[in-house]
Amino acid sequence: MKVSDILRLKGQTGGTLYTIHPTDQLISAVNIMADKDMGSLLVMEAGDLVGLLTFREVIQALSNNGGNLGDLTVRHAMQTQPLTCTTETDIDEVRRMMLESHARYMPILDNRVLQGVISFYDVAKSVVDSQNFENQMLKAYIKDWPAGSPDDK
């Protein structure tokens, strides 16, 4: 399975990607993330991905500033070199990369063009869905598998 499969299943291909500029106020980013129920924002400048802002960085900024975001900008809090992958990256490689770096979100770039972002949840869900499908196919292959058994999930 490739990253492109996850994007297709999410319906994200050609969909809306929410971005923010590094000089925007951090409180604006927080409001967008809260309004759109998102855990991350892609930080773009002059058409290029220059960072990633997640709830983790926002919480760190709050902690470092006594619970106040004040006039902090996105650039102050964002990850400046987020992990990225392409639409052709194998999902097992993405899973390994995310686990090793404790990343919850990964932007997808093809030839420096932003294609989307996937979360660790998206990766885990795709693996579970794939395993469930494979399990169903194997059971269908085995003759006389008892219908309604606890393993039919």
Strand content: 15-25%
CATH class descriptor name: Alpha Beta
The structural class is: alpha+beta
Give the CA-CA distance, first to last residue.
21 Å
**Overall morphology:** elongated
Count of runs of 4 or more consecutive helical residues: 6
Q: What would CATH call the homologous superfamily?
A: CBS-domain
The residue ranges in which pLDDT falls below 50 over 5 or more consecutive positions are none
Report the count of strand segments: 5
**Overall structural domain count:** 1
Main β-sheet, spatial strand arrangement: 1-2-3
Helicity range of the residues?
40-55%
Structural summary, described in words:
There is one protein chain. The protein is of the alpha+beta class. The protein has one domain: CBS-domain. It is 43% helix and 18% strand. It is built from six helices and five strands, in the order αβαββαααββα. The protein has helices at 3-10, 26-36, 55-64, 74-77, 91-101, 120-141, and strands spanning 19-20, 40-45, 48-54, 105-110, 113-119. Strands 1-2-3 form a three-stranded mixed beta sheet. Strands 4-5 form a two-stranded antiparallel ribbon. The model has no long low-confidence stretch (mean pLDDT 88).
Notable characteristics:
single chain; 153 residues; alpha+beta; CBS-domain; 3-stranded mixed sheet; 6 helices; elongated
